[in-house]
Hints:
Distance between the termini: 55 Å
Shape: globular
Helix content: 40-55%
Strand content: 5-15%
Amino acid sequence: MQTHLAAEFQASHDGQAAEAILRKCVHCGFCTATCPTYQLLGDELDGPRGRIYLIKQVLEGATPTRATQQHLDRCLTCRNCESTCPSGVQYGQLVDIGRRIVEEKVERPMPERAVRWLLKEGLNSPLFGTAMALGRVVRPLLPAALKDKVPGAPHPRARLWPQREHPRKVLMLMGCVQPAMLPNINSATARVLDACGIQTLVADEAGCCGAIRSHLNDHAGGLADMKRNIDAWWPHVAGLSGQGKVEAIVMNASGCGVTVKEYGHALAHDPEYADKAAQISRLTRDVSELLPDLLPTLKSTLGARPRPAGAPGGGAPASPAGQGTCLAYHPPCTLQHGQQLKGGVEAAFRELGLSIQVAGQDSHLCCGSAGTYSVLQPELSHQLRDRKLGHLAELQPAVILSGNIGCIQHLQSGTATPVKHWVEWLDEVLA
């Protein structure tokens, strides 16, 4: 796609990066066919190709409008279009650039500005845990929109952290909301790795990966979060912490994982952090990427235990995995499209003799969570959630598994079927 940048963008990093991305686009429209918002709304401007044209127009000097902003806001940034695109257009990077530019030129109404400020500051606040605890107490009294965001009581094993030391060590990002909302995901990850001879370390100074502020167009705030995490992790990466050098930085929230894997890109022009950011990105692994290495130990351990529900020959009602014959798996967009990791969890579970399936229809499509999207675009978000749950329900699963806290909580708000991180389910079987 030929682009003629306006003078104000010709010398900027964003302008040059956007132009390079736009030049790869050949207008084919394959992306439109796999865009969740286009499927719901049927508007070309609510699909990737239409949004690309809007961004191109702004970069060429057109004045963006409130409508331009709304079309970009309605994008989930699920990046399904990147998996579909035959030309390798990096749409996720382009839409981030477009949103930043439009945000500077189009003033939002005050209510929108207030909600977005509350999200980026509140979710990162030290008081978030207190607010979540209070929310659990008054949950029955909350309106449905808030009740959806407040999970039930934490798992009884949530605070059970393994104490053994191992020669093999990894760092793990606890996340900004996960320790308060669903803390068992972190401790279950540590327990599963411990059972396989890997010690999980945590850098207390690390916090939000930077995605929340970045996706809410606070570019400087997102970069500050990234730099803080790099500073917190670096002693462990460089072997200066006194606890030994870590072999990987493990993410059990794929939304965080895709962001940290792109630290190298985000900070490429920062002379102080560029090299460190690139190394952090190279070391980052979704926890599912460790499964091939864990399989021998898991096989031998599970071989000595009763068969869990969902496994061939299993299904005892007393199994911690729950009753039923099938595990349903929802692969998060940030895993299958953002990180291009597809089929790893399913393959590992089947290697362990467990029955796991993805939805027979639209398993590649977003569930509607998309970080803060479910708060900012609730109507579209709930339509996508309910469609996703309808396809998963056809499997008649005992439990729905996923790999990202946002997907897990969002799906759970629309179904009575338990929704868990796959590592929690595996931890229950090992226990």
